[in-house]
Design a protein that fits this description.
By secondary structure, this protein is α/β, with parallel strands linked by helices. About 60% of the residues lie in helices and about 10% in strands. This is Thioredoxin domain-containing protein.
Length: about 500
């Protein structure tokens, strides 16, 4: 019976395979999306086998690229490698061969000199003009090379390479990290013009009429607050408060949703201009959202504006109570109630940790990866939350390392944790369920990281949240409300 079922699955997958010439790559991917996201291990294997069989008739590199993309999403690494070898041999000057070179030679080069040599070889063998619609592939490499020069303290070479980037909507992603690296080295002279380019590019896209804002424009606009904050911070440190306020207020006209991200540099600029009441209002709003690090400045402005500290404690208590009520309202949107999928994963020491062994405890799961910046930005807050429950034997924090891109992740992950001195229990999400072929993240329905789950003492998921805040105090308070709520019996 089992063999007949497997044969049927294979037949269905094979019959679903339509000639590439009849479909665009995106259409093919959408056709197989249900199997990619929800299919069993048998269905995925069957589809992969069918696609590889179809590949024998391919005439163009585009056909190979489309199928390789699907195979990667099916996590069929062995079949990807086998098909890639055929394509590389068939199209030595094509994009597949180029991408393999970038991945295996350029990105793995350990020194800046080696990276530059590999990049020059890339341009020689696969000139940009031969791939007019794939400038972003080269921009990724340029950004990596420029960052390597920046880390070496060579701002001139870093800038030289950045200026060759082609895609304006993505350019800020190369300029901003380089500028940040130079700022960390104290080089504001070279960092400032790079920040301005990133800021001006983002402003251009964010101020486009709504009907002209495509996905590229929206992506570019996302970097506005970061580049603006860093640029304006330089102006503030130079005492150029009027110029700083001018830039911020210009930003708030076209991007009012960036108000929170720009609040810190805004209130500093206003204080510099002696606009204390406006600065006080911004600080009050920040404090009410859990940014307690501004309290010293808030106290000073409170005393300046009121003539004394009379009434401050009540004022402070009211702000914290408002925040607590806001968090409680917010977490209601994250409520759910369903059994948590069982798991048994290895920690950094090679020891098995299972959900079953933690029954009777509230378990906090945090799905993360070393490349995920929002994940990393939330770690100080998660560390503070974990520390606040250090004496509570009924609460367990587990940090599930998933979706790592490098094969040597078992070297990089422990090094990252040790370097940052995080006292986390980290588990590797690299064990696939034999029935579904899915890893733990897929079983839990994770679509993006960071993703956090709060599991109650009976093994039920009570809360699920994605995204995060870099605000330590807010995360600590939010986790407290989530955990304490999960300790209580579910009301149904």
């Amino acid at each position: 019976m089992k063999d007949m079922k497997t044969t049927l699955i294979f037949a269905l997958a094979l019959s679903a395979t339509v000639s590439y010439g009849q479909q665009k790559p995106a259409d093919r991917y959408q056709q197989y999306l249900p199997i990619i996201t929800e299919g069993s291990a048998a269905q995925k294997d069957s589809l992969a086998t069918a696609l590889v069989g179809e590949a024998k008739s391919y005439k163009t590199e585009a056909e190979y690229r489309s199928t390789l993309n699907i195979l990667r999403n099916l996590e069929q690494d062995a079949k990807v490698q086998d098909l890639e070898k055929i394509a590389v041999k068939k199209f030595p000057k094509g994009a597949i061969t180029r991408d393999a070179f970038i991945q295996n030679t350029f990105y793995k080069a350990e020194t800046t000199a080696a990276k530059e040599k590999a990049y020059n070889e890339l341009l020689k063998k696969w000139p940009v003009k031969n791939f007019p619609d794939e400038g972003l592939t080269y921009d990724y490499a340029i950004a990596t090379l420029a960052q390597s020069f920046a880390k070496d303290g060579n701002a001139a070479k870093a800038t030289q390479y950045l200026e060759t980037m082609q895609e304006r909507f993505w350019r800020g992603n190369g300029y901003l990290p380089v500028a940040t690296t130079l700022l960390a080295q104290g080089d504001t002279t070279n960092a400032t013009p790079l920040l301005k380019v990133a800021m001006d590019d983002a402003y251009y896209f964010i101020s486009l009429p709504e009907e002209q804002k495509d996905n590229k424009a929206r992506f570019a606009a996302m970097g506005y607050a970061s580049s603006m904050s860093a640029y304006v911070d330089i102006l503030v440190n130079r005492g150029q408060y009027a110029q700083a306020v001018e830039q911020i207020e210009k930003a708030l006209v076209v991007a009012p949703q960036q108000a929170d991200a720009l609040s810190t540099v805004y209130y500093k600029s206003l204080i510099g201009l002696d606009r204390k009441l406006e600065a006080y209002n911004i600080l009050t709003r920040l404090y009410a959202k859990g940014q307690f690090g501004v309290e010293d400045q808030l106290k000073k402005l409170y005393a300046d504006l009121n003539g004394s500290m009379t009434g401050y404690e009540r004022f402070n208590a009211n702000l914290k109570e408002e925040l607590k009520q806001s968090i409680r309202t917010h977490i209601k949107e994250m409520e759910t109630f369903k059994p948590a999928p069982a798991f048994e994963l290895l920690n950094l020491k090679g020891e098995k940790v299972s959900l079953a062994s933690l029954k009777g405890k509230v378990v906090v799961l945090d799905f993360w990866a070393t490349w995920c910046q929002p994940c990393i930005r939330s770690f100080p807050g998660m560390q503070a939350a974990q520390a606040s429950y250090a004496a509570d034997p009924d609460v367990e924090f587990l940090f599930i390392n998933t979706w790592e891109r490098d094969k040597d992740y078992k070297t990089k992950v422990p090094a990252f944790i040790e370097k940052n001195n995080y006292p986390f229990e980290v588990l590797y999400d690299d064990q696939k369920d034999p029935q579904s072929g899915q890893n733990m993240a897929a079983q839990y329905g994770v679509k993006g990281i960071p993703a956090k789950f709060i599991i109650d003492k009976e093994g039920n998921i009570r809360y699920f949240l994605t995204g995060s805040s870099p605000n330590v105090d807010y995360i600590k308070m939010e986790m407290h409300e989530l955990i304490e709520s999960a300790k209580k019996p579910h009301k149904g």
